[in-house]
Design brief:
This protein has 353 residues and is an alpha+beta fold. It has two domains: 85 residues; 236 residues, BirA Bifunctional Protein, domain 2 (2-Layer Sandwich). It is 41% helix and 19% strand. The chain is built from twelve helices and ten strands. The strands form two sheets. Strands 1, 4, 5, 6, 7, 8, 9 and 10 form an eight-stranded mixed β-sheet that branches. The longest helix has 40 residues. It is rod-shaped. The termini are far apart. The structure holds 3,4-dihydroxyphenylalanine. 3,4-dihydroxyphenylalanine binds next to β9 and β10.
């Protein structure tokens, strides 16, 4: 009995896998197993013998059964360990690329415009979208009774009852950044100021919020000729083809003289092409900065002069990328964003003219 016990315990602990272990189980406890056969021999024994041997056999069978179960569990654990090791994942590997958002055309074009003007020495200036009445109008030589105040369809902020100060406004253009940049940096100066502007206007071609970029260069002998060169250089780089400009006399309170600028285009077959043909498309307002505006910015108009211009960014995006409807820009329709959006790695295209 003791031999049987030792032999089988040794075989159980030595079993290398489930199959070997099953073989040991059958050899000991199977129908024709050694222990089972011994159990059968009990019938031929005397009652006293049967009692002691039967008890010992039962104990042996239980012990082997317990050892078999324990070994089985151990082999299963080992197999799982083995599998976990084989199927190990390196979670530090770079993930598979999954395209998610897109760069909005307004962001893309803002980057492009900024890059082109940066090449010409213009730095980006910023101002708040909630602006004081003074910066948005007075400092730009737009007097309280000036019709431009009405034309701008201004959104006014709330003032407490009895507070008679003029309310702040949502800036109606990026021009107030001219004043802030002059105050911050003095002259000479070359800046552009892209950003959001607001007007109470909503139809096919207008949205209550849209984007402009302001440009300003002040020096001792900056002239209209510099303005024309800078703008032609800009449009040519932006559209990637030589673009001529046409200046038409106009009026803005903050410039004297003032000019509206058209770019050359053709309309063949209903298809708009910039930089060819003999059509013209109005794209911006500009001029030589009014002495009062320089003064409001703390700059001496007897010593310094400069040009300024303001242009719609959304409009530029529509022209360059053939986007038909302005309102769709701000509807956040995923299909539109996927179609007209840009990949994160698409660098702004800045072609030399
Ligand atoms: N601020 C004008 C507008 O929103 C655009 C503009 C015209 C800006 C002439 C200028 C400028 O700097 O010189 O309509």
């Amino acid at each position: 009995m003791q031999d049987l016990r030792e032999t089988y315990l040794a075989r159980i602990s030595g079993a290398a896998d489930q199959a070997a272990l099953e073989e040991v189980r059958l050899a000991a406890l199977g129908k024709k197993g050694e222990i089972s056969l011994k159990m059968r021999e009990l019938g031929q024994m005397s009652p006293e013998e049967r009692q002691t041997v039967g008890k010992a056999l039962n104990e042996l069978r239980n012990e082997l059964d317990t050892a078999l179960r324990a070994k089985k569990a151990a082999l299963e654990d080992a197999a799982l360990d083995e599998r976990l090791k084989a199927e190990w994942l390196d979670v530090t590997l770079p993930a598979r690329h999954r395209a998610r958002g897109t760069i909005h055309p307004v962001s893309q074009v803002t980057e492009e415009v900024t890059a082109i003007f940066a090449d010409m020495g213009f730095r980006v200036a910023e101002g708040p979208q909630i602006e004081t009445d003074w910066y948005n109008f007075d400092a730009l030589n737009i007097a309280p009774e000036h019709p431009a105040r009405q034309e701008h369809d201004t959104f006014f902020m709330h003032r407490a009852e009895g507070d008679d100060r003029p309310p702040h406004v949502l800036r109606t253009h990026t021009s107030p950044v001219q004043i802030r940049a002059m105050q911050d940096q003095g002259a000479p100066i070359r800046v552009i100021a892209p950003g959001r502007v607001y007007r109470m206007d909503m139809d096919l071609t207008h949205t209550p919020m849209f984007h402009q970029v302001e440009g300003m260069a002040i020096g001792e002998d900056i002239s209209m000729a510099n303005l024309k060169w800078v703008l032609e250089e800009f449009f040519t780089a932006f559209f990637g083809t030589k673009v001529r400009t046409r200046f038409r006399a106009s009026h803005f309170p903050f410039t004297e003289p003032s000019a509206e600028v058209d770019i050359q285009c053709s309309w063949e077959g209903g298809q708009l092409r910039v930089g060819e043909g003999d059509g013209w498309l109005e794209v911006l307002g500009s001029g030589m900065m009014h002495p009062k505006v320089l003064q409001a910015g703390g700059i001496d108009p007897d010593k310094w002069q400069g040009f300024a211009f303001g242009m719609g960014i959304d409009r530029m995006a529509m022209l360059k990328y053939g986007i038909p409807d302005l309102r769709a820009f701000f509807e956040s329709d995923l299909r539109w964003l996927r179609h007209y959006g840009f990949g994160a790695l698409e660098a702004p295209s800045v072609h030399a003219g």
